[in-house]
Design goal:
Elements: H1 12-31, H2 36-55, H3 59-63
Length: 70
Amino acid sequence: MSTLFFQKNLPQWERTLRTVLGLAVLIGAFLVPMEPWLKWLLVASGASFVAMGFVGFCPMCAMAGRRPRT
């Protein structure tokens, strides 16, 4: 059985920015009255940004060939 490991492709400043913006979107989704489908869309988007910030890996950046500077 093999384990899949992802190489982090986000620098620390971008990880912090994604986490903060994701939390802001999550908080805004619950505080601002809006249509239920839009609320769920914002919750999903905010949660994915927070997850990418914590993990340090962005699938879209990886597909685009983005590599961290070493």
